[in-house]
Write a structure and sequence with these properties.
By secondary structure, this protein is of the alpha/beta class. Helix content is 40%, strand content 13%. The protein has 14 helices and eleven strands. The protein has helices spanning 4-16, 20-23, 29-34, 71-83, 99-108, 140-154, 173-185, 199-208, 229-236, 275-295, 299-310, 323-331, 339-350, 361-364, and strands spanning 42-45, 48-51, 55-56, 88-90, 116-121, 123-125, 132-136, 159-164, 189-195, 213-217, 239-243. It has a seven-stranded parallel beta sheet, with helices on one face. Helix 4 packs parallel to helix 12 (323-331). It binds NADP nicotinamide-adenine-dinucleotide phosphate. NADP nicotinamide-adenine-dinucleotide phosphate (NAP) is lined by residues 56-59, 63-64, 90, 165, 195-196, 215, 243-249, 252, 254, 298, 300, 317-322, 325, 328-329.
Length: 375
């Protein structure tokens, strides 16, 4: 593991090397049309321009290990991220609930007009108390009420990118799109997206109201979206935002075969991290360690640059509560991989199998859901 000084040194030398975006070869005319970033540090999600690496702020009110970060330090991480060129911040009503949107609103206040705020509705949360009620709620009247609360918590008059967090099995996606379109007409929402949705629901959503971005889990640890979600995004011109791009820390080298998660840490419920599977899955971390050594970069940086190389319209949102981690993650945009190096990395990756489920059944059940037909 490198220390911060080594990262800055390696970052400076790498910045002089050929820039990441120039390594991404557009293979089809459709892709070429979509490689429209003017700067190597920006990308497009549909028509929305964002920094090529964003910041996930989910854990700024409570970390996975259940500890509570210092609020002023979180404001500093957000402000420093902006100074480093990060203009894409990812929150949700459900984080906290509510508290993370408040922290983000406070943090970005001095430069709010220069950044993109993404947040999400969809869980069934009592709007007065913040209590989590069972199931989901994407009823149009509820979405509109949720957005008013978001605007107040974020101290802003518009949400740049509003996602449906999970598909509501009781509400046709056309009705959800209709509510979002009303909010767009009022100027309260500028772009919209879906997260972890079923593939047909994405098609129907996009046909009703053009979708800018899909957000689903995607990383070297979980490659599920490669099967149908990414091809559909490519076909429809929709950007893709991988959540947990660092495999909830597994891809950073901070977890080894002896790591055990405390009670209350969500990662303890993921069978990919049970003792037997963790030992098996360490082969991926070993591969990252080898490349980390070879490229004079951290494992997290290798994991992020791998994502950036998958498609020019992919924008990872690594989550962190640490200033040093944010700086390290953001600097991965300057890490250069040749086509041959990326091929070699991908070949090695193809020989690694991951054991265990990414999510426990009680959470997985909310993914890949198709919204009911509109009658
Ligand atoms: N749509 C959805 O359903 C959904 C689900 C989950 C997450 N998300 C979004 O995706 C964002 C990112 O996902 P995530 O936070 O779950 O997972 P992640 O980005 O894969 O990993 C975050 C974890 O890695 C650690 N970390 C970050 N950078 C590191 C580095 N350079 N070295 C060592 N450790 C590092 C963080 O701890 P420290 O704080 O100590 O750095 C944290 O424990 C979230 O913030 C949220 O906005 C969306």
């Amino acid at each position: 593991m490198q220390n911060r000084r080594q990262f800055l040194l390696s970052g400076a030398s790498l910045a002089a090397a050929s820039l990441l975006s120039t390594n991404i070869q557009a293979s089809t005319s459709e892709q070429k049309k979509r490689t429209i970033s003017t700067s190597p540090n920006t990308r497009k999600l549909g028509k929305l321009q964002v920094s090529s690496i964003g910041l996930g702020v989910q854990n700024m009110s409570r970390k996975y290990d259940t500890s509570v970060p210092n609020r002023q330090e979180m404001h500093q991480v957000i402000r420093s991220a902006y100074e480093e060129g990060v203009t894409f911040f990812d929150a949700a009503e459900a984080y906290g609930p509510f508290e993370v949107e408040r922290i983000l609103g406070e943090g970005v206040k001095p430069f709010r007009d220069n950044i993109v705020i993404a947040t999400k509705f969809g869980w069934n949360i009592d709007q007065q108390t913040g209590a989590r009620l069972p199931g989901l709620n994407s009823r149009p009247a509820h979405i509109k009420m949720v957005v008013d609360g978001m605007l107040s918590r974020l101290q802003t008059d518009r949400i740049d990118l509003l996602y449906q967090h999970r598909v509501d099995p009781d509400v046709p996606i056309e009705d959800v799109a209709g509510a979002v379109a009303d909010l767009m007409n009022e100027g309260k929402v500028l772009h919209w997206g879906l997260s972890e949705m079923g593939i047909n629901t994405l098609k129907r959503a996009h046909a009703t109201l053009p979708v800018s971005a899909v957000q689903s889990e995607y990383s070297m640890l979980w490659r599920g979206p490669e099967k149908s979600v990414l091809p559909l995004c490519e076909k429809l011109g929709i950007g893709f935002v991988p959540w947990s791009p660092l495999g909830v820390q597994f891809l950073t080298g901070w977890i080894d075969e002896n790591t055990r998660f405390a009670q209350g840490d969500f990662r303890a419920t993921e069978s990919r991290f049970n003792p037997e599977n963790l030992a098996h899955n360490m082969s991926l971390v070993k591969l990252l360690m080898q490349w980390s050594e070879r490229k004079n970069a951290s494992p997290a940086q290798i994991a992020l640059v791998w994502l950036l190389h998958q498609k020019p319209w992919i924008v990872p949102i690594p989550g962190t509560t640490s200033l040093a981690h944010m700086q390290q993650n953001t600097a991965s945009r300057d890490l250069s991989f040749s086509t041959a190096e990326m091929r070699e990395l991908n070949d090695s990756l193809a020989s690694i199998t991951i054991q265990g489920q990414r999510l426990p059944d009680f959470v997985q059940v909310f993914s890949d859901v198709e919204a009911p037909e509109k009658l």
